[in-house]
Amino acid sequence: MGIHGLMKLLSEEAPGSIKEQEMDNFTGRKVAIDASMAMYQFLIAVRSGGTSSNPQASSMLTNEAGDVTSHIQGMFNRTIKMMTAGIKPVYVFDGKPPDLKSGELAKRLAKRAKAETDLAAAKEAGDMDD
Predict the structure, then answer these.
(1) pLDDT tens figures, 20-75
(2) pTM of the entire structure?
């Protein structure tokens, strides 16, 4: 996702191009947010079991049936936080990936298929550590 190594390159070659900002600096402005990346962040947070400061985060972002709702709840909470700060979030949903990305997408698909095969084999062998 994104451009591999971009942050490292920018921090080494153009350190002045990266600045952390307080949320208050964006009050009264519209801010574009990559919707797919935002949802992915929340889904990963649940899969990893939350954070060390909040280990219950994984159970908080599921419904009573156990279905993952982290992407919905997380986006909702983030949107409320931004709007409360006077920021107008604009979620951008990108379309079909460009043809140039097809090789990378094929690699990811192959990697995922291998991981699923390895997981099934580990379950069958009773080896849950690998």
Answers:
(1) 899 999 999 999 998 888 888 887 776 666 555 555 544 556 778 877 777 788 88
(2) 0.58
| pLDDT on residue 88 | 97
Q: How far apart are CA 39 and CA 45, in angstroms?
A: 10
Asked if 111 contacts 51 with a C-beta cutoff of 8 angstroms, the reply is no
Q: Each residue of 83-122: b (16+ CB within 10 Å) or e?
A: eeeebebeeeeeeeeeeeeeeeeeeeeeeeeeeeeeeeee
Instruction: Answer whether 13's CB lies under 8 Å from 5's CB.
Output: no
Q: How does DSSP classify residue 9? A: H
Token pair, residue 88, equals 């107008």
Q: 46: how many CB neighbours lie within 10 A of its CB?
A: 20
Angle among Cα 93, 98, 104 to the nearest 5 degrees reads 105
